[in-house]
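At your convenience, could you comment on the folded chain following this short note?
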Amino acid sequence: MLNKTTDTLRSYGFQVEMDDFGSGYSSLNMLKELSVDRIKLDLRFLTGPGFEDKGQIILSYLIQMFQLLGIDLLAEGVETLEQANFLKEKGCVEMQGFYFHKPMSVIDFEDII
């Protein structure tokens, strides 16, 4: 049923994204069952204890897996140059987070562009 809905949306030009991958209902099992165009990676992969060790290994393989599956990846919660460089080095080119800019109003955004 869900794949039928996503296929219909795609036929109208929409893309299907899975948000907060790595938390809650966004899981590897969902990737087997649902065809998505983009994954938004939960920021917890980049922050907190373990990023220096296990987190980097897990993230490296996730990025590689998404590339092999033809799924675009957006890393949320990038807060440091180190995180941005790590992601770029591994092939993740879409990122968002405080490292790039803090949230702002539409008026402030228009002022900086």
